[in-house]
Amino acid sequence: MIHLSEDSRAADFISCADIIFEKLAIDITKTAHMTDLVTLVESKINELKEEGVPHFVRIELTGDAPSYFEHTQLEVLEELMTVFFHEQEEDEDVFVWVMSIDCRTNEDVIDPEDSF
Asked: Which domain of life is it from (predicted)?
């Protein structure tokens, strides 16, 4: 929407989308355990819910992969996210639907305790 006056012009963005499709990059470098990862993802999802608009989200895990992180755990996390968040969101008007979780992390980081 654009407002005009004699001395200025101002534009305001008014979203008309019923649902927002979004890629959500989450840096997992500082997560020490799997529970930290789940808490971090849940926090980011809650931030999107606060916007008051339904979202379909593709989550992209980024940063340095901590030592606990393995691809098999990613599959478990994706299954948990699918079950937990989708069941939770079914009856809500403002929801965040996790469509996928992709791993875009750097090589595994060596834990200082594991080095010589």
From this structure: Bacteria
